[in-house]
Automatic annotation (TrEMBL):
AMP-binding enzyme C-terminal domain segment(s): 509-588
Gene3D superfamilies tied to this protein: 3.30.300.30, N-terminal domain of ligase-like
Positions of the Acetyl-coenzyme A synthetase N-terminal domain: 3-57
Family designation: Belongs to the ATP-dependent AMP-binding enzyme family.
Keywords: Ligase
Domain AMP-dependent synthetase/ligase per the UniProt entry, residue ranges: 67-444
Source organism: Winogradskyella alexanderae
Entry EC no(s): 6.2.1.1
Pfam families tied to this protein: ACAS_N, AMP-binding, AMP-binding_C
GO molecular function list: acetate-CoA ligase activity
Name of the protein in its database record: Acetate--CoA ligase
Length: 637
């Protein structure tokens, strides 16, 4: 069937369409109710179905006779090690860890935080939680203890599962001490901290609540999967919102499992038994959906890569992994390709490896610039597919559904709506705009299965943030436009969220930290263009009188504060001291104007500005400090 017909069926008759997809997975209790609504009219999928996603990812394949096939290939250039983990081995590890957690008294509905590097035990921990109906919340390792503490206080975990350490380029990340520090700061105190010792010689500080991971599983009894309701929360995944407090996205179980199975075949075009690789991190939604649950539900071998696209040891790593493990479909962020392209502009490393196994290269996480797309296509010689989605959706909303029909690629566009997503471009009045006109990207309700259920502990914020702005629609927070052929071009966030190296960050959160420095009178933090990372944060600060002479010291302190509070992942490295900030007469700081000046985007000076002369002052500060789009240009084609 061709894309358009297939897509139309999903929109015209969602119940029939998703009922057909739901039978592609095994339920303990097949759902009779396909689509129902909660008290706010928000969709609930497969409400009376019962299943377990850990069973789908492991036991089902063993029962079908695939126990000796590889479930995971762990490839870790940072430790120079590789491990091939079969479904049988995965079963043994997960069932024993689940048995250990059960023995600690953790049971269905309890929450567990997982704060781990990219090692197999991170996947075992997620699947062990799912096996027992525990709700996991994986926190990305690049976040500092303070961020971890915020999440501990929001989801009140009974336990935290962590590891001795992670490894960044030339740096050990002390995960266990970070967990201890976070628990010091948080009001809620988890009962247990389960610690996996990587045996890399890193000292692990001991606390009474600590449980050694290896000892726990050595004495535990393996357990079977419990049956959970389709709408039982599988996980909470925190993501940046427009305030300092991150939002805990809740994912259901049955809708998610159905959607992921569907997407592996129809969006990614990958067959069962093939090797699939998403070069992301289990701490992000890409990791949840396409390192762990999607490929394992689909009986693919998933690659768990602990490294970087460059410097581990060089820009050939990605191509080595594809070639060595026969990867059929790969997914990464455009930033990773830009980093490789910078080191190896002519793709010399690519020529050294046979990449005949690769059918499609997917990109997402941030806007993909045309130069990066063209370079990747030219050197990999396979379709390069930019696709768009977000933590909230859990799986792609716009894509070239190559498993249905490969449509022509249009550089700059993340292609067309994926089945189930009725995507509209709206104006302020909730009216659909014409082709070519930019507006707000929204999805007409009901959303398909697998998308967010709610926000943890905050249904009001969920409604206010996503449902109230355009009644009858889910609002994505992105701007964009459609062309005459229905291809959608995402132009970027319309709120305070920025995307740094494919990592979603809140400038409002950074601004809160910057403004709390004792020498700062006022400040603005916003995202500016970065050739490598897509965007990077820039802070402009006005100092309290008498503090100006120490501007360099203060800037350094502010940078350290943000790194200490949010973490290295914020990549907050630029602070400029200015005399004043442009504001409207009512006192609102004109952040968009500040960004547009830096990025050399055409701008109008609003008539409400309180003093026009300030624009020249800002330009002069940018010039002196080499801030501006033309100052950090790398070799675009
Ligand atoms: N644990 C601890 N620290 C981490 C971390 C982790 N899991 N991940 C990143 N960091 C740190 C980095 O070490 C770096 O610290 P530094 O400022 O001391 O150098 C900082 O956070 C910023 O990291 P990053 O933005 O990743 O920059 P980088 O310079 O280390 O690497 C790239 C640049 C392009 C190689 C890297 O950003 C990359 O691989 N990007 C791909 C993005 C991706 O996969 N996104 C997922 C969404 S699909
Ligand atoms: P996250 O929730 O971390 O996955 O980030 C989601 C946000 O990243 C989206 O709302 C977009 O702003 C941006 N994004 C993700 N993929 C793309 C893409 N292919 N093109 C443009 N922006 C993207």
């Amino acid at each position: 069937m061709k894309y358009q017909e297939f897509y139309n069926r999903s929109i015209d008759n969602p119940c029939e369409f998703w009922k057909e997809q739901a039978v592609q997975i095994s339920w303990f209790n097949q759902p009779k109710s396909i689509l129902s609504k909660d008290q706010y009219g928000y969709p609930q999928w497969f409400q009376d179905g019962q299943l377990n996603i850990s069973y789908l990812c492991i036991d089902k394949h063993i029962e079908d006779g695939y126990g000796n096939e590889n479930a995971i290939i762990y490839d870790s250039p940072v430790t120079h090690s590789k491990e091939f983990i079969t479904y049988n081995k995965l079963h043994s590890e997960v069932a024993r860890l689940a048995g250990g957690l059960e023995a600690l008294g953790i049971s269905k509905g309890d929450t567990v935080i997982i704060y781990m590097p990219m090692i197999p035990q991170a996947i075992y921990a997620m699947l062990a939680c799912a096996r027992l109906g525990l709700i996991h919340s994986v926190v990305f390792g690049g976040f500092a203890p303070h961020e971890l503490a915020i999440r501990i206080d929001d989801c009140n975990p009974k336990a935290i599962i962590t590891a001795s350490n992670g490894i960044e380029i030339e740096r050990i990340i002390p995960y266990k001490p970070f967990v201890d520090e976070a628990i010091e700061m948080s009001n809620h105190k988890p009962e247990f901290v389960v610690v996996y010792d990587r045996k890399l010689g890193v000292e692990i500080p001991y606390k009474l609540r600590d449980i050694d991971y290896s000892e726990l599983i050595a004495k535990s009894v393996p357990v079977e999967s419990v049956s959970v309701e389709s709408t039982h929360p599988l996980y909470i995944l925190y993501t940046s919102g427009t305030t300092g407090k991150p939002k805990g996205i809740i994912r259901d179980t049955g809708g998610y499992a159905t959607a992921l199975k569907f997407s592996m075949k129809h969006v990614y075009g990958v067959n069962e038994g093939e090797v699939y690789w998403a070069a992301s991190d289990v701490g992000w939604v890409v990791g949840h959906s396409y390192i762990v649950y999607g490929p394992l539900i689909n009986r693919n071998t998933t690659v768990l890569f602990e490294g970087k696209p460059i410097k581990t040891p060089n820009a050939s790593t990605f191509w080595r992994v594809i070639s060595e493990h026969n990867v059929s479909v790969m997914f990464t962020a455009p930033t990773a390709i830009r980093a490789i392209k910078k080191e190896d502009p002519n793709g010399e490393y690519i020529k050294k490896y046979g990449l005949s196994s690769l059918r499609y290269q997917f990109l997402a996480g941030e806007r993909c610039d045309v130069a990066t797309l063209n370079w990747t296509e030219k050197h990999l010689n396979v379709p390069v597919i930019d696709h768009w989605w977000q933590t909230e959706s859990g799986w792609p909303m716009l894509a070239n559904m190559c498993g249905v029909e490969l449509l022509p690629v249009k550089p700059g566009s993340a292609s067309v709506p994926v089945s189930g997503y009725d995507i509209k471009i709206l104006n302020e009045q909730s009216e659909e705009v014409e082709a070519g006109v930019e507006g707000y990207v929204a999805v007409k309700l009901p959303l398909p299965p697998g998308t967010l259920l709610n926000l943890w502990g905050n249904p009001e914020r969920f409604k206010a943030g996503y449902l109230n702005r355009f009644p009858g629609f889910y609002f994505s927070g992105d701007g964009g436009y459609k062309d005459e052929d229905g291809y959608v071009f995402i132009t970027g966030r319309v709120d305070d969220i920025i995307n740094v190296a494919g990592h979603r960050l809140s400038t409002a959160e950074m601004e809160e930290i910057v403004s709390s420095h004792k020498a700062v009178a006022e400040c603005a933090v916003f995202g500016i263009h970065c050739d490598l990372k897509g965007q990077k944060p820039l802070g402009l600060v006005v100092l309290k009188s008498g503090e100006e002479l120490k501007d360099k010291v203060i800037a350094k302190e502010i940078i350290n504060d943000v790194r200490h509070e949010i973490g290295a992942v914020a990549a907050f490295k630029d602070v400029l001291v200015v005399k004043r900030l442009p504001k409207t007469r009512s006192g609102k700081i004109l952040r968009k104007l500040l960004r547009n000046i830096s990025d050399e985007i055409e701008y109008n000076i609003p008539s409400t500005i309180d003093d026009v002369a300030i624009i020249d002052e800002i330009k002069s500060v940018y010039k002196t400090n080499q801030i501006g789009i033309h100052k950090n240009t790398i070799n675009h084609e």
